[in-house]
Amino acid sequence: MNTSRKSQGLDRRAFLRLLGMGSAGAGLLAACGSNPWPSAGSSGSSGPATTTTTTTAAGAAVTGSSTTTTAGAASSAPPTGARTLVVIELDGGNDGMATLVPYGMARYHELRPELGFDPSELVVIDDEVGFHPGLSPLVEKGLAVVQGVGVPRPDLSHFQMYDRWATGDQDGTAGYRTGFLGRCADVLQGDEVATAVSLGWGESRYLAAEKALTMTLPEPDAFGFLLDEEDDYARAGLEALTILARDGDAPILSPARRGLGAGLAFAEVLKGLPEPSTGYGEDDLGLQLALASRLIRGNSGIRIVHVTMGSFDTHDDQRPEHDRLMGELGSNLARFVDDMNSAGRGDDVLVATVSEFGRRPEQNGSGTDHGAASVALLAGAVNPGRHGEHPPLDRLDEEDDLTTTVTMNQYLGTLASEWFGIPSEDVLPVSEPTLPGLVKV
Amino acid sequence: MARGGADAVIAAAIEDTDTAAVPDLDFEFDDDSQYETIEEAIRWMISAQQDPGAFLHEKLVWFWHDHFATSVDKVDFGQAMWEQHLLLRRHALGNFREMCQEITVDRAMLIYLDGDGSTADAPNENYARELMELFTLGRGNYTEDDIRAGARALAGYWLDWDNELSLEFDEESAYQGTINFLGQRGRFRAPEIVDIVCDQEACPEFIAAKLHQYLVGVDPTPERRTELARVFRDSGLEIRPLVAEILTHPSFLETRMSRPRYPVEWLAAARAVIGLPDEPDIWRYEEMGQVPWQPPNVAGWPPGNRWLAADQMLHKLSILQWTDVDPSMVDPEDPVGSILRRCSLWEVSQTTRDAIQKGIDTATETGDDWFAAVALATAVASPEFSLA
Questions:
Q1: ipTM above 0.95?
Q2: Cβ-defined contact of A22 to B13 (cutoff 8 Å)
Q3: Cβ–Cβ below 8 Å for A27 and B275
């Protein structure tokens, strides 16, 4: 490369650095002259930046190895009956006290003068608590609730707590680069194309894995066009894409190549899914659970499904908004449980909710602020009813929040060990006693 | 400019001002007809980024939208969102403190982070928390007590529904006492709160590091971060000198392909290369998960390799599925080279070259003209084109 070329290259590079980050100028610039850097091969040595200066979770949706990403790779599903976990993330911090309502506990009506429920409105379990009315169709199918789920030292930031939940690190000190569900997927990974999938546009940090292929799927038909054998464009594109997805030439290009490979392989799996079941809501959760059902009934190899539902950040006008969310959750999950039962999969599908935190017990105007402990709901292969201890309402913590009676580590550990048979110390920072009798074993 | 050397290019960028022809939009209040205008606004904001004349200013407008992320889904009033957009345009390369002062009492922000109707008796903590955690200081530079005190001091603003959400301040709902806030004691209101926050040592550090990540693609070293913060602080939190300091440093040109292009960046570049019509298809932005005015949450769109995941890469390939591409874009004498030049891809792996060649070969076999589309699609879906 001679000097004049080099300096022209630098001009171009300056342009590209400025324009390449989104502007249209790149195309115009292309017309300005011949390629100053004709050499092939990437000179980059460091991978794309994954660190962030904000506290946002930077999720790596695809973290799989390239070995399973050949185009058209046959899906070898796990044997029918392999246990599957569907995690529903109640994004924004779900108000546990409006989900499992402690209507009979001391101070309840004092803390929630306007937001409080009358027992006549609830699906009453006993003289202390009752479920939100929106959950009633689900209660009929068998609904379990874990009370007082939280962390030992709460933080009130969405992003901090989201991070701790997603990485399965209740103290925020373990320094995990992977997500809790991603680590489970790493253990469960067999020879299927993908082990875990996040539906919709939800955050997928939960699914960041070392080895297992995990991915985000907006809708089932998203990539079907690629596999249309009648379509010449698709066929030509597919062949080019297969080469484009060959990983291993440069670390800096690797994440994108793996993304391409994973997409190709999974598009093939999607092609073979059964028809959707009817009866789900038209809301986001309904659409996502309908897809989850197809993935499970179609033996796609998926063992973990992550669905985000929101928003539960009810600072204001909580009642109508939270009522709607509970209604969508109750009716769609009831349909899902039925759907799994009719498909003969009722015993090997577990649904479990997570949420970054609960709300403060004392209402604030028409809403509630960020709080600490909350409840987790489980359906499918569960033993219905109350599990764990409800935190007392007359003995709040120093921030006036609910105390934790079941740690996040215990709860997630129960999902890992009781459901998947993965020792909790393999996927969590410490081993704590699990919750016996929560899931059906 | 292209002939004037890197310094001249960067110098021109630093002097960039708002040259966009900002439309005059009229949003109906509390009426479904506003949604059409909202779409029009979103389409215009996308076009502004794609305009061949768009340069650094437009990039900073987007940066600040991501920074002070506000969603029309919650705000649900196009006029307020539009005013916030104009606010960001005004200050994109201006003064950070002034921008912060204005955004604190911006109607869209008051709705989005619940400042609307917050009273000293029951202060809503949402804005006070995000002001410090996400907008100015970063975690670890304030306490929960600061949040509670700050929330009280910020109380008193409300939007009058009976008057098209006009901004009002109710002295009786405001806090009358003194508070302890970030080590200072006094009878503070919103302007003092913002000033105190902006005066913190952590503020210029936090903003400088985030801007460096955006423009260079990597976090600054601790030394560099300190240096940038000093420039920013000494200028009185003027944004332009900070940007100049980042762009004129050798690290700016030395760092390449350091982060994924966000969908808005990728789509702008891909659309220009392909020559798609001016009217952008919002659904493509929806599909790829990045629509202006619809950030996933107050933290904006997360950085990282998720933008290179399977779904993203396949959406990229699909961009040309239903598009007619002018076959003359491809030079038959040098098909791969001409495609790469069109995409301004100067450093390209052999694998990517092979893939484009394969696409051309397969397509040519059918004897159709649209091999140009396949070749272009392969190029824009390549890892190289996916990185900034």
A1: no
A2: no
A3: yes
